[in-house]
Amino acid sequence: xxxxxxxxxxxxxxxxxxxxxxxxxxxxxxxxxxxxxxxxxxxxxxxxxxxxxxxxxxxxxxxxxxxxxxxxxxxxxxxxxxxxxxxxxxxxxxxxxxxxxxxxxxxxxxxxxxxxxxxxxxxxxxxxxxxxxxxxxxxxxxxxxxxxxxxxxxxxxxxxxxxxxxxxxxxxxxxxxxxxxxxxxxxxxxxxxxxxxxxxxxxxxxxxxxxxxxxxxxxxxxxxxxxxxxxxxxxxxxxxxxxxxxxxxxxxxxxxxxxxxxxxxxxxxxxxxxxxxxxxxxxxxxxxxxxxxxxxxxxxxxxxxxxxxxxxxxxxxxxxxxxxxxxxxxxxxxxxxxxxxxxxxxxxxxxxxxxxxxxxxxxxxxxxxxxxxxxxxxxxxxxxxxxxxxxxxxxxxxxxxxxxxxxxxxxxxxxxxxxxxxxxxx
Length: 426
Hints:
Blueprint: H1 8-64, H2 67-78, E1 83-90, E2 95-100, H3 116-124, E3 128-130, E4 134-145, E5 156-168, H4 170-220, H5 235-274, H6 284-301, E6 305-313, H7 316-322, H8 324-340, E7 347-352, E8 355-360, H9 367-386, E9 389-394, E10 400-405, E11 408-416
Antiparallel strand pairs: 1-2, 1-5, 3-4, 4-5, 6-8, 6-11, 7-8, 9-10
Helix pairs in contact: 1-2, 1-4, 4-5, 7-8
């Protein structure tokens, strides 16, 4: 199963942003939880403080059943943030005062009628009752009485009433919501800035890597002239760049050497295929090719051509007397003399052994004149070949020696015109 391949930028983003995102969310959750706890604790603490202050202030009003006095005290408490209602009870317990917004907990409070939540708080004397929307704080009103005839006795503490304060969670929840949104926005802004910085950092790495990748792809495709140039270089990427450029230069040099060797080998093969290795004259294969071209030229312009066949006389004795090395030297000199008697457009080839072929092309349209021209060239060759040969060789003791040799040639001449002859005719 093939796994999906991601680029460097994706890996950098994932390896950077995912741990960072997890860290930020964890820290944010810890901070919000701690802050929310502080807000909840702050509301309860303020409510308890208000309740204690009310119990201290309400003791006289409860004792004297002064509801007007209690109402003034309750109205002052209602001015405090998050206080929705205040309920003052006597020891019966009877509701002496229910002041405030009259939330659900107190909707049915009238005289001694209690809502379920308030009844639960009063009966159980529960200090804190939270229903999610509001919190009820119960604080008893205690009175210390001292008997007149028992001055030394400890005072008797009695509950003369109670105060229930309802605190609203609404403002706290709004603060929590605002704090949550602020945290989300700050976190998002932080992540966006981080993402941008990661983008810049990854780009600084990715652009050189992409350039290296493209260069390697081009080099692999055969473009050895390609060189990697990075605008800004990281140490490791600089080392890699220099290595690639050096490798490419080495490959380019090796390719040039290989091409040169291939060209040399090709030229050698060509020479082996079309030239005689001893005299460096064209061989029979190249002669046939040039004869075909000469026949085509003769057909096009109507001029005659001539082919001369010649073999050396008195060649075998020098081979037998002095060896093949001297005979080879003689053949090389013969090839040179024949070539010196011809035009650049003519061809001399070694047919085999001591046999040579000369092809004269584009002589003349008149046959008789063409015969004369061919005879003139043949005579020139014969005279040149009949001159004395001075051949150098080394004997068995490696001593340099020279030998004089006289050699003549038998030459046969044949004219051709394209419609009268082919390259296989003699």
